[in-house]
Amino acid sequence: MKKAIVTGASSGIGRAVAERLLREGWQVFGMSRRSLERLGDLAERENFTYVQGDVSKDADRLRLVECAGEVDALVNVAGIAPRERRDILEMTEESYDEVMNVNTKGTLFLTQGVARGMIKRGGGAIVNISSISAYTSSTSRAEYCISKAGVSMITQLFADRLAEYGITVNEVRPGIIRTDMTEGVVEKYDRLIENGLLPIKRWGTPEDVAEAVWMLVNGSLPYTTGESISVDGGFLIRRL
Ligand SMILES: NC(=O)c1ccc[n+]([C@@H]2O[C@H](COP(=O)([O-])OP(=O)(O)OC[C@H]3O[C@@H](n4cnc5c(N)ncnc54)[C@H](OP(=O)(O)O)[C@@H]3O)[C@@H](O)[C@H]2O)c1
């Protein structure tokens, strides 16, 4: 049975990825911070193992890697937005550290830990969930944009370093996806989408993103690494 680690598995995109892999008969080791009791029906699923923890903490990452053993795939989904949107001129060091520690440091060092096992077993697939914010300026959440640009470079670096071991490392860049993370800005994005921000005139779903992740981990793109796939309704297209 194929095995995967999925961070951020309790909610939104990570949960959809975990469910997609379970549906394909994979064994999934999921990590997020909330208690097992707050995981709902995912906790009951056969072949799902929950490791409660914080990806920004070394001891928690180690526990996850030890629990899962050598895996076929790692999907780094866990991520946070700043607690408060503040202009870059008012951004605090505390908020910067918090967002970078989870989104960027957590992704970097979990990948490092899992990659060592993948090298031993001789292959694997790593997928990082970044964002359109990796290249799109939002001056009221600069720390988030910076953290996701960092994830893009993490993808490039590990893709380069791990290619010789048969390990692919790719990135999925979601656009505007309806999850808990975007709950507070629904009206804003409803309006932007209605006014033509996206060629595909709707919110993305966690399942849209999970589909792209599935394509990258199932071995159907063996000659693709260091690549990023946008799941954004066409946000990237310049239009006149
Ligand atoms: N929604 C969007 O529009 C959008 C767009 C682009 C990119 N993304 C990215 O997609 C990823 C998933 O976000 P989402 O939209 O699905 O939001 P979400 O529903 O809030 O999910 C975030 C997940 O990350 C987990 N998490 C947060 N901090 C963690 C930590 N320190 N350690 C372990 N797990 C942690 C959360 O679980 P706990 O709270 O239980 O820890 C939750 O499972 C994020 O990286 C986000 O930046 C989202």
Characterise this structure.
The protein is α/β, with parallel strands linked by helices. The protein has one domain: NAD(P)-binding Rossmann-like Domain (Rossmann fold), CATH 3.40.50. It contains 6 helices and 7 strands, in the order βαββαβαβαβααβ. A 7-stranded parallel beta sheet has the order 3-2-1-4-5-6-7, sandwiched between helices. Helix 3 (93-121) links the parallel strand 4 (73-76) and strand 5 (124-129). The protein is globular. The mean pLDDT is 98. NADP nicotinamide-adenine-dinucleotide phosphate binds next to helix 1 and strand 2.
Give the SSE map.
Blueprint: E1 3-7, H1 12-23, E2 27-32, E3 48-52, H2 58-68, E4 73-76, H3 93-121, E5 124-129, H4 142-162, E6 167-174, H5 186-194, H6 206-217, E7 228-231
Parallel strand pairs: 1-2, 1-4, 2-3, 4-5, 5-6, 6-7
Helix pairs in contact: 1-6, 2-3, 3-4
The structure holds NADP nicotinamide-adenine-dinucleotide phosphate.
Quick summary:
This protein has helices at 12-23, 58-68, 93-121, 142-162, 186-194, 206-217; strands at residues 3-7, 27-32, 48-52, 73-76, 124-129, 167-174, 228-231. It is of the alpha/beta class and 240 residues long.
Q: Notable features of this structure?
A:
240 residues, alpha/beta, Rossmann fold, 6 helices, 39% helix, binds NADP nicotinamide-adenine-dinucleotide phosphate
What is the domain tally?
1
- Per DSSP, what share of the residues sits in E-state strands of 2 or more residues? 15-25%
CA(first)-CA(last) distance: 49 Å
Query: Which molecules are bound in this entry?
Result: NADP nicotinamide-adenine-dinucleotide phosphate
